[in-house]
Design a protein that fits this description.
Layout: H1 5-19, H2 25-29, H3 37-58, H4 62-79, H5 84-95
Helix pairs in contact: 1-4, 3-4
Length: 96
């Protein structure tokens, strides 16, 4: 698999877990319970953003923490029903 296709594959799994919940971390994150699903995801993004900052300052685990942040951002986009191509289109616009 080409490296750039891994994002699309992960996104497809997230959409599937949103539409067909199973007993998984991502399905549970996207289900409402005592705390809304969106709040759970947003709190996780905040936590992961802080971990990226700390990793950068400490020169330790930056790639690992960045992957966590990107993953949870993709989780939010999938939860909100944003098409992955909308994200890619935005990146293309910024490249011009």
């Amino acid at each position: 698999m080409a490296d750039e296709k891994i994002i699309a594959e992960i996104y497809k799994v997230l959409e599937d877990r949103r539409d067909h919940p199973i007993n998984s971390y991502t399905s549970i994150m996207m289900q409402d319970d005592a705390k809304s699903a969106e709040d759970k995801i947003l709190e996780k993004i905040g936590e992961e953003a802080a971990e990226v900052i700390i990793a950068s300052k400490n020169n330790d685990n930056l790639v690992y923490e960045s992957a966590d942040l990107i993953f949870h951002t993709l989780l939010l986009l999938a939860y909100k029903g944003v098409e992955l191509n909308d994200l890619f289109d935005e990146f293309k616009k910024r490249r011009k």
